[in-house]
């Protein structure tokens, strides 16, 4: 009897505690942001502001806005060597993200352009697919 | 009646569950002394008593981004924050450096607070490479020493500070290491360990630095 009561108490308690935790719902349309946080932000920082002259910014970045046709390949295969972003030269090495699928890259680009750079015209999955066919693999 | 008791107990238990994850409202100060200590029996006032003595950070010798020799004397009577990183680190280091920049900024005019970042990749991280990294990051050379030196000394120093660091071919960049910041006081005692990638923990670190500077001149 005591055991059953204890079980009931814990049952209700656990359910109440869980209900307050499972509010972090996952929406597919947020995939770009989720991917940004897991793959990009450790170097490019939480709001895409970059870090000093070590890591280029991705938010409000002329390089991103002016090189949309190169983004998919950069995300998948990385880049190295000098690059000028908003007038500052960066010369680091970015690792590729070969584990990302075409749709994931498309969602990430969508996040980069629409959220971090306030661009109205983002890229379609077909455009991303075409770009990825033409990448120069390092 | 019994059911009501069950419900009440359930609510209390749920509240307890929820509280476990929350920060304890305990008093942070005075900050504890951390690290290895020795317990010995000593005679005090004619009585045998147990005495605990903590080990201070041991002497070291490295070279910073300006080729200056950096030793424990550089930090004499000062508070400092220590960490371990490498310039080609693709994972947690940029975040750690972003947070350490906050510390530098907060204590820019405080001569008694210094920063000591050790490279765990001394083979590639030459003085020149550290210099270029420091300049691009925006490091003030008089406040923040980025050091390189003998590989074994650096790794044994990490262990001494209770920080995990090792070469690991499988880890991104070739090294596995912790992102911890260590707070060391004027007597070279370790007073705090913080997650250097967490803005919240670095907030705590900055409060603790201010406390040390004020309370223990």
Write the layout of secondary structure elements.
The complex is a heterodimer of chains A (138) and B (217).
Chain A: H1 2-21, H2 31-44, H3 62-66, H4 71-77, E1 79-80, E2 83-85, E3 88-90, E4 93-94, H5 102-116, H6 125-133
Antiparallel strand pairs in A: 1-4, 2-3
Chain B: H1 2-20, E1 37-44, E2 47-54, E3 61-63, E4 69-71, E5 79-85, H2 93-106, E6 113-119, H3 127-137, E7 144-147, H4 151-160, E8 165-167, E9 175-177, E10 180-184, E11 190-195, H5 199-215
Parallel strand pairs in B: 5-6, 6-7
Antiparallel strand pairs in B: 1-2, 3-4, 5-10, 8-9, 10-11
Question: What do these coordinates show?
Answer:
- The complex is a heterodimer of chains A (138) and B (217).
- By secondary structure, chain A is mainly alpha-helical.
- Chain A has a single domain, classed as Orthogonal Bundle (Cytochrome Bc1 Complex, Chain D, domain 2), CATH 1.10.760.10.
- In chain A, 51% of the residues lie in helices and 7% in strands.
- Chain A is built from six helices and four strands.
- A two-stranded antiparallel sheet of chain A has the order 1-4.
- In chain A, strand 2 and strand 3 form a beta hairpin.
- The N and C termini of chain A lie far apart (69 Å).
- By secondary structure, chain B is of the alpha+beta class.
- Chain B has one domain: Glutaredoxin (3-Layer(aba) Sandwich), CATH 3.40.30.
- In chain B, strand 5, helix 2 and strand 6 form a beta-alpha-beta unit.
- Chain B is globular and about 60 Å long.
- At the A-B interface, helix 1 of A face helix 1, helix 2 and helix 3 of B.
Oligomer: heterodimer
Structural class of chain A: mainly alpha
Which percent band covers the strand fraction of chain A?
A: 5-15%
Give Rg of chain B in angstroms.
21 Å
Outline of chain A: globular
Q: Major β-sheet of chain A, in short?
A: 2 strands, antiparallel
Please give a handful of descriptors for the protein shown.
heterodimer; A: 138 residues; mainly alpha; Cytochrome Bc1 Complex, Chain D, domain 2; two-stranded antiparallel ribbon; 4 strands; 7% strand; globular; B: 217 residues; alpha+beta; Glutaredoxin; 5-stranded mixed β-sheet; two-stranded antiparallel sheet; 5 helices; 33% helix; 26% strand
